[in-house]
Amino acid sequence: MESNNTIHVSENPVSRFLFSSTRSAVIWLIIRLYVGYAWIDAGWHKVANEAWVGGNAGAAITGFVKGALAKAEGGKDVTGWYASFLENVVLPNAGVFSYFVAFGELLVGLGLVLGLLTGIAAFFGALMNASFLFAGTLSSNPVLFILATWLVLAWKVAGWYGLDRWALPYLGTPWNRKGKGE
Question: What is the pLDDT of residue 172?
Fold first, then answer.
């Protein structure tokens, strides 16, 4: 039962179209495939590289972290708290983080390309992009971070042309035809 003090703020038409209407799904499909391909490409190169996964696992991430720590010494590209995290958590566990990054990138890419748990995949992709940005690495990270954030916002429809169309209703969310449950 709604209280008389409850105020309902309607969603604007643009937000409703982009984030709640399956008519926008083709837009999200294009973005999803672009971001997903970028993650698969990056992850596959790491999984196939001994310095990331295999006998020399951790070597590549150690070099990356040491480069970030060198940027932190100047105090402008890497903040102190993140440098501390890299030095005290990532560096001593470089082998484990190496596997996390390599397979994480691959799984994020597969989730986005297949449209399976799209919002979750995009969230973890954005988390990795933010981590790389905090470490002072620009590259394609800002663009991928922004697109991943939009995919998280569009989670209800971003996977419509993908496996989410069947997986999400099975998991109990999110689509109803107009007039049913609205």
Answer: 79
How open is the CA angle 98-120-66, to the nearest 5 degrees? 25
d(CA 82, CA 97): 15
- Cα separations (Å) of 36 from 18, 31, 138? 19, 8, 18
**Helix or strand (DSSP H, E) at 34:** helix 25-47
* DSSP labels, 83-128: HHHIIIIIGGGHHHHHHHHHHHHHHHHHHHHHTSSHHHHHHHHHHH
pLDDT number for residue 171: 85
Query: Quick one: 149 exposed, middle or buried, by C-beta within 10 A (0-12, 13-18, 19+)?
Result: middle
Query: Rounded to whole angstroms, how far apart are CA atoms 14 and 165?
Result: 22
Residue that is written with structure tokens 């799209």 in the block: 118
- The pTM assigned to this predicted structure is 0.88
Question: pLDDT under 50 in the chain at which residues?
Answer: 179-182
What six digits make up the tokens of 135? 């470490």
The secondary element (H helix, E strand) that includes residue 36 is: helix 25-47
Three-state DSSP class for residue 175: coil
